[in-house]
Amino acid sequence: MQSTPARHRFHQQNVAVAANEQVGPFEGELGQDAFRVFRGASTDVRHPNLRPSRGEPRMLRPLCPNGLSVDVAKHRAHGRHFFQGIGDFERPDVPRMPNLVAPFHMLEDALVHVAMGVGKQSNVHVCEVLAKRRQMSVLLSEFNLMKWLSVALTVCLWIPSSHGQSQSGHMPLPQDPGRAARKAYDAALEAYRFHAPNLALEQVNRAIEKTPGFVDAWFLKAQILRDQGSPAFGETMGRALDLGPDRFPAGWVHLAQFEWERGAYVSGLDVLREFDELGLGPLDAGMAQTESWVRAGLEFSTAQWAVGDESSQSVPMPGAINTLADEYYGALSLDGKDMILTRAGRGLQQAVGGEDFYLSSMNDAGEWSPPVLLRGVNTRQNEGAPTWTGDGRTMIFTACASPRDGYGRRRGKGSCDLFETTWDPARGEWSVGRNLGAPNSAGWESQPSVSADGQTLVFAQSSRGRNKPSDLVMCRRMSSGGWSQPEPLPGLVNTPYTEESPFLHPDGQTLYFSSDGHPGFGQLDVFVSRLQADGTWGEPKNLGPAINSHGRDNSLMVSPDGSLAYFATTRGSDHLDLWQISLHDDVKPIEVSVLSGRVLDHVSGQPLNAEVALVNAQTGARVARVESTVGQGFAIPLPEEGDYTFEVSAQGFVFKVESYSQGTSGAEVTNDEVNIWLTPIEDGVVFTLEAIQFETGKSLLRSSYQGGCERLASWMLAHPDVRVRVEGHTDNVGSAASNKALSLERAQAVRLFLESRGVAASRVDVLGLGDSMPVAGNETEEGRSANRRVEVVIDL
Description:
The protein is an alpha+beta fold and 796 residues long. The chain has 4 domains: 2-243, no CATH class; 315-587, Glycosyl hydrolase domain, family 43 (Tachylectin-2, Chain A); 591-680, Immunoglobulins (Immunoglobulin-like, Sandwich), CATH 2.60.40.10; 682-796, CATH 3.30.1330.60. The protein is built from 11 helices and 39 strands. The strands form 10 sheets. Strands 11, 12, 13, 14 and 15 form a 5-stranded antiparallel β-sheet that branches. Strands 29-28-31-32-33 form a 5-stranded antiparallel β-sheet. A 4-stranded antiparallel β-sheet has the order 6-26-25-24, with no helix packed on it. α6 (250-261) runs parallel beside α8 (285-307) and α7 (265-278) crosses α8.
């Protein structure tokens, strides 16, 4: 590390050449003024937000013939995807620049401005300094360093890119380039650095034509083709590695990755096998991680394809839901009969913007209707990736800012944000949507999935912005109506790579998502993870080749009953359509039905605003919680497996707790809906404490969740002026004396439980009545079970 020669000292102005607020990375060919570079002396360039640097800028290596001097500043960009301009600069992080590779590790997520001088003569004090400006998102792959290096460097670092396939047959031997080839190669690098890939490709082809064995030219051509996503990259990288198999060891890893991502799994393993046989030096930590990731994916894919999967066949969704436009990212209603989907395409009838929401419904024959444009929520901007609460009243979706109009009628924080819209039954339309607030950041949030009860939200988030690896995060609805700060999804779902497109099934215990970080068939695959008893998400399972391919597979939804999965694909057409497939039993969720109804006043018969909750009877975990309103009642998901308690409460009324097990409930069912009756709080009101479990013939409460006791405790804490009398009752089995003693002990056990939850013992009286007050005959087990009860008498 040496200071830049005083005669050619780099100032902060050099770094900010052409730092116009509208300038950002560009794709494709650039004209002379595409970067709006000021052609005058760099020290004349100013920017209103520019802060002068302190201290001496450093160079990375001694300036020498054909040497490179780089002065780097980090740009803290806000809204970086739409390039709102300069935020502020930081001084170069010189201690972290020991060589020409390490600097770029610190530049992750930064918009980087570089002033570069190339020494033309051996006497550095008379070298010519050419200030150049560069702005880009730096990727932490070794080969991207090529974008920063000139062939004139004495230190020639090649760090390979992704795709490639070694070719057999005649291949020229490595050759030193002639003058004409070197000149063309220099021109190719210059064009490549300034984002002119077509010109770069033309020049590098000329260099290869002049010197067919020019190794570096083959690698540069491979990098250009990789950037363009060209399938010719494979052959090109293969030829480069044939010429110099030990020149760039990481190239073999990228070559194997290319084969994996195009579905050539056996060829990919052959590439890694050849790499192993060469015994090349150890890879750096980042590339070693990539090699392990690619190898695991190839081995998994090869094994899965060897087994085969012919049991499930995907087909387009029946009916008229698909069109010549793109249909993708949808949301299902809780009964599975309605779908809100995203549709994009020019010239669509009724379309408002580039991406809009439509509604399609399934008839009794299982066919989907032509989608109808949703009213209210669609704007001239793009809306996409909806998710729907079980009651159908709230939808959360993604909207992104555009460079010209931003968020339009909405207000956003980052490049893409989450918004919430509510259904207005009076107007028959959705609201335009408001920003969710806390879950959103200056980064990228998208692809939300809300739980059926509307209390939990899972979505993809990247603090580094769009097109960067994202993780799945979750937040919860707070009592204020807002959302908590997002936290990473606990468990084994997230990886250092990309997780996105979550779908939280209405059972609340099964999560489907897309990832390229778990072993799969290449690029993004769809996985399923189960909620564990400790609240974490378990080991993901790949959904297999019936759904996944070597391409990008995502946008999956699963019907409430778990029988069908819906996903977007280009199979069979040149645009996205929605298809469906039957799921295997091992990746199905718990079947869910919908329970809808109203909560009513037992005295007046009028509907009430109330809270309705479904709780796991074994663990006490809340499965779902919804609000029942006077106007619309409630809808709540009911899993078909497991034991639950059904808990209802309203201000000024006695709560109700009922046991629910595999489709049975004590609620009164009327016309496929339930009416739940609550009694007003009055002196002398008596109610049975349901969902309370004692050990057989004993007064000891079982260790499992005691729904009735828990709800009684929370109800008494919410009504501090209420006193109660707990009365124990038994059947007539045994002596009257023993039954009376048992009933008293059970009442006392309830009081002790209430005390443990913070209820003062002075507010709870106890009474044991034995078998003296039966509510049913003791001749049957059903009658005896009804007589074994605990009642609560309100004392105001």
